[in-house]
Amino acid sequence: MGQHPSLAASAACLPLADGSSSCFAPLAASGLNLHAVFDLAELPPYLLTTLGVDDKALARFRQLILIGHLGRDFWDALQQRGLHGTDPVDQFVAERVAAWMSHTLPDHAWHQVFPGPAPVGLQRLGMLAGWHHASPFWVGVDAEWGSWFAYRAVLLADTALPVTSRREAGSPCDSCVDKPCISACPAGALASERTGPWQLQACLDYRKQPGSSCLDRCLARQACPAGERYRYGDQQIAYHYLHSMRAIRERY
What we know:
single chain, alpha+beta, 4 strands
């Protein structure tokens, strides 16, 4: 696939040995250190539908860019920016993505799909990228990263960046014999041969109890040995779980 003329001319975007592009370095400097590029024409039709990609969008944009973060760098960058605004995480991401496109790829049209008003199948995109594998505690896991990564942005763009090869690290659950996450769940909510399918309501009911040990963390997730070196700090874990707790109380 040939490069877009304005991309080839940009000193900020150089091909790297792994087939990716140096374009993403400014995002990585803000902790947004996971990136996957897909050609829109190669994505499954059902996924394009969930993303709201119609014929008009296909005529305007060529690629989908999935952006995430791995480990603690993103939290550190967010702390430096400050936790202000109605949704500081999404606002920080939107700021950094807009600055990145403006300074690194200024000649390209783009549209931010996520964060946004419409639901996006992030797990499906993650599976296509090879990032996401199902776990008993219902958070995506990777053999190297464990569950200590997150999806942060999805863009449509008229770029011609190198398409990312699918990550083939596989699921750590396939070789995990002891399954410590299952025994660590105080609600007995995880899917297993002993307990049966995932029990969402049991998980939610336990988290809502006064003094719950899962109020600001998931004990099952923390028991998973995969990706220990990337484990979030306690403050980062508590922030996200308390944020989800507010949504749980509103909806359930």
